[in-house]
Amino acid sequence: MEFTVAIDGPAAAGKGTIARALAQRFGFAYLDTGLLYRAVAAKGGDPVQAALGLTAEDLARDDLRSLAAGQAASRVAALAGVRSALTDFQRRFARTAGGAILDGRDIGTVICPMAEVKLYVTSSAEVRAVRRAREVGGDLAQVLAQLRERDARDMGRADAPLRPAQDALLIDTTDLTIEQAVALASAAVLARFPERTNP
Ligand code: CDP
Question: How close is the Cα of 6 to the center of ligand 1, in Å?
Fold first, then answer.
């Protein structure tokens, strides 16, 4: 069975938390596509060559979650050559037997426009900054400024800019608990695939 859930949205909106919960509940494979761009930037050298030669080891680095790695990722992510080098891998992953969830910026719009379920997860920049500062530390005002800068770059780039797919379900997590956000996302999966029960 092939079944793809595409989750997009701005930085630190809760995409990964929702994706991991859905993956566990429904038994889907999960790919955090942001990690690919973070790893390309961290590898250094020519970003297109880095993307073409990305290895599992590159993705296992322990310095990919930092604020600086996120900023660097959004710079290389604006390069069309980097994006196209990573497209096939993501599309193959999306067709994993048993179902797959991918989160990122262009999953519902470019990578998997035919995804059975599309979610656009967002929340206020202030709430996102508080969550990210809790995760990786750092001064709150600086974290907020960096998130805003990164969102503007991701939304403003020419190739695969961040925007909701036309048929995406919008989930604003500003005033939601994790459980409430996951419940909305689960309902969207079940609506497309009602026979899928909790394994
Ligand atoms: O975890 P967070 O939401 O902060 O970021 P991420 O998902 O790890 O993505 C890091 C950066 O990679 C983003 O700011 C985007 O510039 C880029 N990215 C992208 O362009 N396309 C994707 N599908 C995923 C990430």
Answer: 14
Residue 197 lies in a domain: no
What is the span of the domain harbouring residue 81?
4-192
With a 6 Å cutoff on the Cβ, whether 14 touches ligand 1 is no
Residue 75 maps to which CATH number?
3.40.50.300
Please count the structural domains in the chain.
Answer: 1
Amino acid at 151: D
Look at ligand 1, atom 5, and give the residue with the nearest C-alpha: 11
Q: Is the pLDDT of residue 63 over 90?
A: yes
Q: How far apart are the first and last CA of the chain?
A: 15
Half-sphere exposure (Cβ direction) of 106: Cα atoms closer than 13 Å:
21
pLDDT tens digits for range 9-40: 999 999 999 999 999 999 999 999 999 999 99
73 lines ligand 1 (CB under 6 A): yes
Residue 185 lies in a domain: yes
